[in-house]
């Protein structure tokens, strides 16, 4: 579950950050002008990129925490680490 979410968030970062930059450079008269003329478009773009970047980092933290519990507390791991808990987002 974590790896699927991480791949999704990283792909969104690439799409919204890298591809929008490429499109702005390729089409300066249309797409770049739309970003320059519309403050809300720039604001929404920056919020979306930051959101997916933060979600990506938190997925890595959740995955690492789960692995830490499995290594250091193997007898309690089944209580704290389950697919159901991962899907619901209820962690420790």
Strands, count: 0
Shape: rod-shaped
Weakly predicted, low-confidence segments: none
Mean pLDDT: 84
**Alpha plus pi helix count:** 5
The count of domains is 1
Q: Biggest sheet: strands, sense, closure?
A: none
Helical content stands at over 70%
Spatial separation of the terminal alpha carbons: 17 Å
Structural class: mainly alpha
- Rg for CA atoms: 19 Å
Q: What proportion of the residues form beta strands (DSSP E)?
A: under 5%
Order of helices and strands: HHHHH
Q: Would you mind describing this structure in some detail?
A:
This protein has one domain. It is 86% helix and 0% strand. The protein has 5 helices and no strands. Helix 1 (2-26) crosses helix 2 (28-37). The radius of gyration is 19 Å and the shape is rod-shaped. Keywords: G-protein coupled receptor, Membrane, Receptor, Transducer, Transmembrane, Transmembrane helix.
In a nutshell, what does this entry contain?
This protein has 92 residues and is mainly α. The chain has helices at 2-26, 28-37, 39-72, 77-80, 83-88.
Provide the descriptors you would attach to this structure in a database record.
92 residues, mainly alpha, 5 helices
Produce the secondary structure layout:
Layout (H helix, E strand, L loop, with lengths): L1 H25 L1 H10 L1 H34 L4 H4 L2 H6 L4
